[in-house]
Amino acid sequence: MNDQPGLAIASVIAGMCLLTVCDVLAKTVTQDIDPFSFILLRSCVAFLPVFVALSVSRTWRYLKTRRPWGQACRGMAMAMAYTFYLRAILELPIADATAVTMSAPFIVASLSGIFLGERVTLIRWAAISLGFAGALVIVQPGSDAFRPAALWGIGAAISVAVTALLARRLGMTEPASVTAFYTTIAFALAGLVPILIVPGTWQMAEGINLWFIVLAGLLAGSAHFLIILAYRKGEASFVVPFEYSSLVVAVVLGYLVFGDIPTVMVATGMMLIALAGIILARRGSRP
């Protein structure tokens, strides 16, 4: 595979930023409607940017996937990750929930050598650890981060790691737009199945919440494509640490939307994350 570290970095950062905006919208909307209704409605809208990606890349013919089980497993893992994470942000501050989920890079780095045959060097381990340390400094997770609700974040982290590994394997044979299509189907099913099983779960959004869902769906569909593209263009252990960028966005949005004021510790954490990113980018671009 022709790896392109620069494109991988830009894609994953853009995708994670869009998803963080979606998190804010999700936390707002699910105060009024059931989370599964939100997931289903958001997924329906998310098909629009996915269809655009399929059209622009002319990959409609590849929808008859050669890796049906791989697509199913990746979609299921991604849907589980989001469902767990959505439950976490409903009970924890977005930044705290994100911090718990940021344990995913350690899982990916540990397993990428076994399942993908990638070489995780000591410098990458150091950079991943530095980035995670920066994440912890930013959110300063205290005892609240280890409330029972934090277990949802741990479940999300495990699911995210599985998703990252499967995305890399699928990227070797499947176009990013096709994987995004099947991921969106999995999300829709994750919302639809509980609604069909549990009476009274379905709730239709109204007013501004409906527009928030439309925006979240458009952003989510675009984000899925970008993140999948990132894992096609870079090794999993190289791409994952840049997902820490979502913490920076979480802090900024926390200030703008919820009035949380960044501290000196937050600024320190941002610098640690930036340093980790520079180290990985320089190492990743070397032959």
Summarize this structure as a short list of keywords or feature phrases.
mainly alpha
Would you write up a description of this structure?
The chain is mainly alpha-helical. It has helices spanning 5-29, 35-57, 68-91, 94-101, 104-115, 122-139, 150-170, 176-197, 207-233, 236-239, 245-258, 264-284. α1 runs parallel beside α11 (245-258) and α3 runs antiparallel to α7. The chain is 76% helix and 0% strand. 53% of the residues are buried. The protein contains twelve helices and no strands. The protein is globular. The chain has one domain. The mean pLDDT is 79.
Topology summary:
Blueprint: H1 5-29, H2 35-57, H3 68-91, H4 94-101, H5 104-115, H6 122-139, H7 150-170, H8 176-197, H9 207-233, H10 236-239, H11 245-258, H12 264-284
H-E string: HHHHHHHHHHHH
Model regions low in confidence, pLDDT < 50 over at least 5 residues = none
Strand count = 0
Shape summary: globular
**What count of structural domains?**
1
Distance N to C terminus: 14 Å
Give a brief description.
The protein is mainly alpha-helical and 287 residues long. The chain has twelve helices and no strands.
